[in-house]
Write a structure and sequence with these properties.
The protein is about 35% helix and about 30% strand. The strands form four sheets. Strands 1, 4, 5, 6, 7, 8, 10 and 12 form an eight-stranded mixed sheet that branches. The protein has a three-stranded parallel sheet with strand order 9-11-13. A two-stranded antiparallel ribbon has the order 2-3. By secondary structure, it is an alpha/beta fold. The termini are far apart. Helix 3 links the parallel strand 4 and strand 5. The protein is globular and about 65 Å long. It binds 1-O-pyrophosphono-5-O-phosphono-alpha-D-ribofuranose (PRP) and uracil. 1-O-pyrophosphono-5-O-phosphono-alpha-D-ribofuranose (PRP) binds next to strand 4, strand 6, strand 9, helix 4 and helix 6.
Length: about 210
């Protein structure tokens, strides 16, 4: 069973409080999604392997540690996941970015795929799949299945907010995938929105409502 890491860090929780507030405008919402993504990225990459190197400082030789092992990829689920990418790339500039386009059918709440473009060597990369919202889990589960079909073996899911239902679906369908979230909320309403949640993440990032 994949581990669910709930990131209780005070900075993440403070910023999440601003995201939840219906009064927060588009510009601030978008900036804070990026800031939380960077803080979550810091936690989710905590166990990446490093290897020893030597560099010449202006004073002497120094033994240093640099990232080793698998290359990384960041894969946002379109569209809201895009809001998390830039600030993660700032921290991991060598990561490649793939895109998986899914939207939830408003009636059935089932994910519908409309676009997909992954780095050619995605199967050799450790993947961070990012999306602010894990509601029913349908989108995340479909995206993970798609990545596995493309050969990915090491996948980490990063969501800002999750519902217990979505966590359970990902754990059932993909027990090998760890999940990083800032909070797990009470549940879903009749429209499969997270309660209390923060509303529609894509609309609030891009100002489409
Ligand atoms: C939202 C969100 C997730 C999905 C979560 O996207 O960003 O991708 O819903 O719901 P689920 O867990 O029930 O699948 P949406 O479909 O609204 O598309 P958007 O990002 O284009 O707004
Ligand atoms: N997608 C969102 O953007 N918000 C929710 O609460 C559920 C799905």
């Amino acid at each position: 069973m994949g581990t669910v890491h709930v990131l209780e860090h005070p900075l993440i929780q403070h910023k999440l409080a601003i995201l939840r507030d219906a009064q927060t405008g588009v510009k601030e919402f978008r900036e804070i999604v990026g800031e939380i993504a960077a803080l979550m990225c810091y936690e989710a990459t905590r166990n990446l392997p490093t290897e020893e190197r030597e560099v010449q400082t202006p004073v002497a030789k120094a033994k240093v540690r640099v990232l080793a092992g698998k290359k990384l990829a960041i894969v946002p689920i379109l569209r809201a996941g895009l809001g998390m990418v830039d600030r993660m790339i700032d921290l991991i500039p060598s990561a490649k970015v793939g895109h998986i386009g899914l939207y939830r059918d408003p009636e059935t709440h089932e994910p519908v795929e409309y676009y997909c473009k992954l780095p050619a060597d995605i199967a050799q990369r450790q993947v961070f799949l990012v999306d602010p919202m894990l509601a029913t889990g349908g989108s995340a589960s479909a995206a993970i299945a798609f990545l596995k079909k493309a050969g990915c073996r090491q996948i980490t899911l990063m969501d800002i907010l999750a519902a217990p239902e979505g966590v359970a679906v990902v754990q059932r369908d993909h027990p090998d995938v760890d999940i990083y979230v800032a909070a797990v909320d009470q549940g879903l309403n009749d429209h499969a929105y997270i309660v209390p949640g923060l509303g529609d993440a894509g609309d609030r990032i891009f100002g489409t409502k």
